[in-house]
Write a structure and sequence with these properties.
single chain, Lambda Exonuclease, Chain A, 3 domains, 6-stranded mixed sheet, 20 helices, globular, binds iron/sulfur cluster
Length: 496
């Protein structure tokens, strides 16, 4: 397998999304931007490894760059009467696939494709249809085709229960129906990628789904600065529709405002950008918000991680597990006190965090979060898990306010926010070029994703490295709540 026209199942799925991805992978791989997070990949690997035991004992075909070695090993296992073969490899006419689990079914075999997501999607069907095609072309008697994915309603109690953790869906009929289209698709993809001159391919919704394409920046390099794709919250389908109708730049959008029913929020975003408008402040509305706050004020922010395979009792797949918080306590005169919590690595952080939280935030005080629905969800979940702490936790829940509201309601509006009210846009818009508030200046941890990954993998480090990672995590989370203090300060200044 080394020709550009050779297709593995992942290359087939990429080609199904857009054949130009394969062409660029071969001729211009340097243009790709990696957009699959490490946590997603790690979850996928862990789930795949665990699922192998679902049907009992299994024989594993070890990975080799030499695919013929893998197919030979697979045949060896089949001949030896194996009941389950993990990574069973098959190759025919330049097509290759490794089946996650090949499960014996009477005089034939079942294909079991394992996914770490919580539901079946169209691209998984394509993936399984490709495997079905390859195996039947190799003369394998395929009885059934199954998709095995995570059951989101599973709650861990004691030992991991694989039958509860996974859901299996029978996709045989759909895979069968698609057999003919697989052959056609393979031929079309091969034709497309066999030309050496770069093929023309305009951007469209397939650049977003089923996966956000890593070449979006490259293929969208003709777009003007400030274009329809920059409109905050616009649906991809709508943006591509306007794009294909020639309504691309902000000027185009304004000129066609009536025809495309441009929303007031988008018009405001466009006009503010084009006119480089100064910040707009609705003082009565902001005062109304500020009047809801009482002091001392507790600025709170959690860091969490998620696991496809829950490690702790009472946890469901992909549940947010808080492991850290930062708390800036602000008095009416602006004086600040900082408290923080960071769980010990490798432990279930929830109980210790919840106990510390109810100690750090007294009953009846006003707390503040940016986009509080996240913090509230975490607190509610902790209260349900630890009924003896529920009283204190729910008191924090009830007295929480959301710093995002003045920005979401556009009571404070800055062109630099580009129509967004996320803290990622709000903070640099309010404090441009402030090194103290610039996350790029932090060491090691710069965003929530990096914080989760850093905590999750901390146990694999030396004590010295762990000390550094913990310090980085504390600095990162501390900046989150300090940033909130500064944002609130800006609101207060704006109404003075
Ligand atoms: S960005 Fe779009 S057009 Fe370009 S390779 Fe990716 S999916 Fe294809």
């Amino acid at each position: 397998m080394s020709l550009i026209t050779d297709l593995s199942k992942s290359r087939y799925c990429k080609g199904f999304q857009c054949p130009k991805i394969l062409w660029l992978d071969h001729y211009k791989p340097e243009e790709a931007e990696n957009n699959l997070s490490e946590t997603v990949m790690e979850n996928g690997n862990l789930v795949g490894d665990l699922a192998r035991s679902y049907f009992g004992e299994y024989s594993l075909v070890e990975f080799s760059f030499d695919k013929s070695e893998m197919t030979a090993k697979t045949q060896e296992f089949i001949d030896a009467g194996a009941e389950n073969i993990a990574e069973a490899a098959f190759m025919t006419d330049g097509l290759y696939c490794a089946v996650d689990i090949l499960h014996k079914n009477g005089d034939g075999w079942d294909i079991v494709e394992v996914k770490s997501s919580t539901h079946l999607t169209d691209i998984y069907i394509e993936d399984m249809s490709f495997q079905y095609y390859v195996l039947t072309s190799c003369g394998v008697n395929v009885k059934r085709v199954f998709n095995m994915h995570i059951n989101s309603s599973y709650v861990r109690k004691g030992e991991l229960d694989l039958k509860g953790l996974f859901t299996i869906e029978d996709c045989t009929d759909t895979a069968k129906e698609k057999l003919a289209s697989v052959a056609e698709r393979v031929a079309a993809i091969r034709k497309y990628i066999s030309v050496t001159e770069e093929p023309e391919r305009d951007i469209d919704t397939y650049c977003e789904k089923p996966y956000e394409c890593a070449y979006k920046k490259y293929c969208g390099r003709h777009l003007p600065d400030h274009n329809v794709f920059d409109l905050a919250g616009i649906q991809a389908r709508t943006a591509y529709k306007h794009y294909h109708n020639g309504i691309v730049s902000y000027e185009d959008l304004l000129a066609n405002a009536k025809k495309i029913k441009l929303s007031d929020k988008h018009r405001r975003q466009i006009e503010a950008t084009l006119n480089n408008s100064p910040d707009e402040v609705d003082k009565p509305k902001i005062n109304e918000f500020l009047d809801t706050l009482t002091y001392p004020l507790y600025h709170l922010d959690f860091e969490t991680f998620q696991q496809a395979v829950p490690e702790f009792d009472g946890v469901s797949p992909y549940q947010q597990i808080p492991f850290q918080y930062s708390l800036h306590i602000e008095q009416a005169d602006g004086t600040l006190e900082h408290k923080e919590f960071l769980a010990k690595e490798g432990t279930d952080p929830r109980r210790a965090l919840a106990e510390q939280l109810v100690k750090d935030i007294p009953k009846g005080v006003c707390s503040l979060a940016f986009n509080m629905s996240f913090e509230k969800k975490v607190i509610k979940c902790l209260a349900e898990t630890f009924p003896d702490l529920a009283n204190g936790l729910m008191d924090i829940y009830e007295n929480m306010h959301d710093l995002m509201i003045p920005f979401r309601e556009q009571d404070y509006y800055s062109a630099a926010m580009q129509g967004s009210y996320s803290i990622k846009y709000v903070l640099p818009a309010l404090y441009p070029d402030d090194p103290e508030l610039d996350y790029h200046n932090l060491e090691g941890v710069h965003n929530g994703g990096e914080a989760s990954a850093a905590f999750a993998e901390m146990t694999s480090h030396t004590p010295e490295e762990i000390a550094v990672i913990r310090a980085n995590l504390l600095k990162y989370c501390g900046l989150d709540t300090y940033a909130m203090v500064k944002v609130l300060r800006k609101l207060k200044e704006a109404v003075q």
